[in-house]
Amino acid sequence: MRNVRDFGAVGDGIANDTAAIQRAIDAGGTVYFPSGTYRTGSIFLRSGSGLELAPDAVLAASTDPADYNPKDFCPQDRNNNCCGKSGQHLIIAVEQENISIRGGRIDGNARNILKDHTVVHTFMGGPQWKCKEWRPAQMMYLCECKNIRLCDIDIEDTSGWACFLHGCTDIYIRGINIRNSPYVSENDGIDLDCCGKAVVSDCNISAGDDAFTLRGVSSRLKDPRPCELVTVSNCIFRSYYAHAIRIGVGGGEIRDCQFNGIICHGSHMAIHINAKYSDHNDGVDIHDLAFRNFHVDVEQFAFLRLDYKFVKVPCGKSIRNIVFENADGRVRHPSMLRGNGVGSIRDIRFTDIGLAVAGALQIPENTRKFCMIEGTDGAFELNQVRDVTFTGLDLKYEHPEAWKTDIAQTDCSGVIRK
Is pLDDT of 125 > 60? Predict the structure, then answer.
């Protein structure tokens, strides 16, 4: 293990330690960071390398754009439209293998990068900071890498997505704590895009935007692949203005993934599954997912929809073979399953779902628009879906006079309640 101070790092929070850290990484093996605050711009991990931080060691993101990688530095990151489109990142690995990051704290420094912000109110409900033209995009950017271990890391205050893995395989993520501002747009927690064979556990994530996502943007990869074989367990997720768990975005495929033992709180939605986010692609084929043993305190429990609000060309893909089993907690607005008559939402199972429905359907207009709430007759609103089974559905209403039925359906077939 190589001590970063032996390569010239100062660790006083003032000196720019980027070059020293990179020299230590390039020397090979694991780089150790003793106690201190290491201000840095972009650093590039190599195959067989890692970062090991002492419990009180901090990597602090630089506020100077000159300290970061050039825009479009790799083909997979070209035309990245996230977080101001800067295409700049703090920790980078592209087409590497056997890499690791463990311990300490990574400070995205959004409070200083965005310190000249103004407050605006968005369709998501705000208030949010209106971000400046420049900010780092995904803070941790790992692309088409193999054998990744991310463990026991505190991440805070990122100006964009905290942890983005794109086209990676053989992933182990455990004990990641993310604390992001509720006022910063696009500051997701963990995003797995076209990743495979991933184990995620024991994470506690609070983000302004989506806390955890599975995505299917395969077009930018040299080796396009589905997002598949992902397990997520024993985690706590919160999104201040968006979704605790979001599934979708892109033009590929998301399949064979499971979530188990999850708490979702303080979010618009617990589970958001959306096949087509925009007309930039044809949408994602989403199938064979399971969500078991959930406790929620959110606006909506489940949102399954083929087309998002920005879509004009209907999605022809499908959302199918989705299982929701053993969930309890509190919700305020209807869950939604909405097809479009072109693609399909089918073979959905809800088993042992016990929810306290707190709302009286006095839904603020910005919430109604953001959550795309159209019908309010039932706690579950179904439109143009088929073969949906409810077994052991137990709903308790705080305002029973405000609701007409448990399950409202329009143009559906094969909806069964047992």
Answer: no
